[in-house]
Amino acid sequence: xxxxxxxxxxxxxxxxxxxxxxxxxxxxxxxxxxxxxxxxxxxxxxxxxxxxxxxxxxxxxxxxxxxxxxxxxxxxxxxxxxxxxxxxxxxxxxxxxxxxxxxxxxxxxxxxxxxxxxxxxxxxxxxxxxxxxxxxxxxxxxxxxxxx
Length: 148
Description:
Elements lengths: L10 H14 L6 E6 L6 H13 L4 E6 L17 H26 L3 E7 L4 E4 L4 E3 L9 E5 L1
Parallel strand pairs: 1-2
Antiparallel strand pairs: 3-4, 3-6, 4-5
Helix pairs in contact: 2-3
């Protein structure tokens, strides 16, 4: 599917890159975008993607459905995927993403991280993008240390 989407990398090179980043920075939050329902995508393609994703040390996924964009090459491709199928595939991949979020948060439990207070000051986001509720309200945009 990556070749059909004109991506300049392969699944193998992507997996190697993610694993290399994770080895070098085990606390890093690594996310990925996933398109479901690109023209020509088959159930086997989705199964293969889900298998690869399940084994990667990603912290989160941004999953979105394919939709035609006027003027793009993909708009003219054959074998469009039905909208109901696209949404179901998206739910399946999002479920893997939810597992990734839980796994990553669990892996950070007990660590102390620098975090920036956000929103109303009751929340902070760590340097590796874990959002945490604070024990006390702080001014917004203040650096604090939190234990996850």
